[in-house]
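Regression test case RT-17, inverse folding.

Input:
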């Protein structure tokens, strides 16, 4: 940190050298002026490198939860401020020493907004915060790159008072008048303070890659205000970074548009977003199916002729009513075929469940055989009528 700090003595020495070089610019040779310019250019390059190192160190501190909010963060911020002063001093020396090769002057707008920044309204085509989205969010792959993407997003948001006021509502739950964030063509001091608070809120939050929820609530820009979806539903490319604030509030920032998305209804006025709409103007629900409009059903339209509505209007098994009258067709006069008779299934004969009765047969009593006597059996002759002859005894 110490090597990044610049004392006022060094700045004074550089300024003195610049004055000497400036005084010699007309009296000394061109070679001497060139040498002074080269020295000043070298000093400026060293100052630029110091500022780059300081900013990299601050980014590293902000990514370390154990260092955020501690003296490490204070020292890192102080180092960046000192490096910026060093760069400004070196630039002044170079501009004075290199009178023959002046550096390009900043735009009039940038000069007027020396302590803040110029106001630049974003392109809100299709109700997006940023019509072309945020490339850094799309390219984020880990926590470090996601946090850098959030910083890039805020850098763009701060230029537009409408978006800055909307960000205050989403991240700080605060209502801010856009008129207080602008001073002519420049951002106001109130805008500077608000951006600092938003930077702190994001620095204290957990920032990671992710996708906006399909049942989340999208946001948009309509006219001069940030608005939110009245119904849940986020479709299409939902690639985003996920910002979890210290109080547990979760906000997704989508890459495709820079729109914040919340899990519940947002606290901004309802309005259009970049979500595709159903025919009735409502957002497409998460299941992707729009509500059917019965007024568009030809069967319910009295202006549609019966012959156009087609068959199938009579429930199966019911009386179709009188025959449809003859209709004129392109091929001539034709009479529609009568409606078919509903099919009735045959009645099945029930299967008996009672077993048939079984009668018990009478027992057969055997007839005893006649006893045989010792006398010889006399055989009697029968006449023609089967009557025994009288001669039998």
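Golden output:
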């Amino acid at each position: 940190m110490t090597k990044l700090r610049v004392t006022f003595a060094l700045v004074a020495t550089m300024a003195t050298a610049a004055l000497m070089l400036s005084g010699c610019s007309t009296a000394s040779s061109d070679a001497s002026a060139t040498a002074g310019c080269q020295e000043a250019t070298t000093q400026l390059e060293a100052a630029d490198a110091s500022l780059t190192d300081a900013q990299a160190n601050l980014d590293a501190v902000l990514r370390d939860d154990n260092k955020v909010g501690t003296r490490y963060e204070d020292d890192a911020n102080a180092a960046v401020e000192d490096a910026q002063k060093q760069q400004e001093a070196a630039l002044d020396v170079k501009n004075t020493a290199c009178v023959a090769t002046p550096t390009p002057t900043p735009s009039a707008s940038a000069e007027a907004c020396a302590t803040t920044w110029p106001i630049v309204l974003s392109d809100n085509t299709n109700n997006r915060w940023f019509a072309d989205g945020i490339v850094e969010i799309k390219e984020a792959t880990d926590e470090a790159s996601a946090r850098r993407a959030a910083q890039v997003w805020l850098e763009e948001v701060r230029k537009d008072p409408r978006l800055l006021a909307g960000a205050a509502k989403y991240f700080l739950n605060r209502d801010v008048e856009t008129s207080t964030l602008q001073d002519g063509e420049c951002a106001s001091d109130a805008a500077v303070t608000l951006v600092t608070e938003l930077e702190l809120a994001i620095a204290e939050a957990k920032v990671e890659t992710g996708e906006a929820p399909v049942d989340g609530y999208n946001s948009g820009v309509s006219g001069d205000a940030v608005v939110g979806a009245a119904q849940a539903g986020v479709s299409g490319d939902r690639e985003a970074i996920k910002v979890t604030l210290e109080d547990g509030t979760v906000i997704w920032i989508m890459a495709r548009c820079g729109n914040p998305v919340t899990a519940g209804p947002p606290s901004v006025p309802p309005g259009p977003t970049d979500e595709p709409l159903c025919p009735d103007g409502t957002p497409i629900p998460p299941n992707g199916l729009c509500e059917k409009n019965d007024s568009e059903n030809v069967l319910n339209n009295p202006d549609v002729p019966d012959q156009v509505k087609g068959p199938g209007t009579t429930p199966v098994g019911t009386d179709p009513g009188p025959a449809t009258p003859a209709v004129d067709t392109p091929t001539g006069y034709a009479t529609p075929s009568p409606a078919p008779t509903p099919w009735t299934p045959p009645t099945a004969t029930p299967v008996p469940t009672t077993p048939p009765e079984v009668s018990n047969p009478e027992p057969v009593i055997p007839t005893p055989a006649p006893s045989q006597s010792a006398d010889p059996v006399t055989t009697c002759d029968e006449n023609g009528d089967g009557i025994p002859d009288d001669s039998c005894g």
